[in-house]
Amino acid sequence: MKQSNHFVVLAFAVLLFGSGHSSAIDNKANITQQPTIKADANQNAVKSGVAAKHKHTAPIKLVDINSASKAELMKLPGIGATEADKIIAGRPFGTKEWLVTNNIVPGITYQALKHKIECKITKKDFDKIKAQAVNKSKK
């Protein structure tokens, strides 16, 4: 007898929950359609605003410190004729950080220009750097 009572209560709960849940889905479907249209319009406005902001930015052309001319180097912030000559004399560089570690430019100047430079290394440059390292280790 107890099992049949539990079965009746369980069946009643399932029917009650099922009918309430389906009506909630119907109501929710009607409510969410209107704000979705507004959200789409707002998203389009935001996307066009973002596109307008980024439309004017041109890619930055990085200056290679291993191959740039003196004139190109002097266009960089904090680099004058003296620093440009030091960079050219100190080539090849293994990384752009070598400008600071080899005392070519001060750290504060490097911070201002590190996003505007790159350091491309050719095989010839790599062999020269390797030979310099071997010579230093022999001394």
Structure characterization notes:
This protein is mostly helical. It has two domains: 1-57; 63-138, DNA polymerase, domain 1. It is built from six helices and two strands. The chain has a two-stranded parallel ribbon with strand order 1-2. The longest helix has 54 residues, at 2-55. It is elongated and about 95 Å long.
How many strands? 2
* Tally of structural domains: 2
Strand order of the largest sheet: 1-2
Q: How confident is the prediction overall: mean pLDDT?
A: 77
What composes the largest sheet? 2 strands, parallel
Report the C-alpha radius of gyration, rounded: 34 Å
Note the gap between the termini. 100 Å
CATH superfamily of the largest domain: Photosystem II 12 kDa extrinsic protein
Q: Which class do the helix and strand fractions yield?
A: mainly alpha
Share of helix, binned: 55-70%
From the coordinates shown, what is the CATH architecture of the largest domain?
Orthogonal Bundle
Shape: elongated
Strand and helix map with partners:
Elements: H1 2-55, E1 63-64, H2 70-74, H3 81-89, H4 98-101, H5 107-113, E2 117-118, H6 123-138
Parallel strand pairs: 1-2
For this entry, give a set of tags.
elongated, 68% helix, DNA polymerase, domain 1, 139 residues, mainly alpha
Give a quick precis of the structure.
With 139 residues, the protein is mainly α.
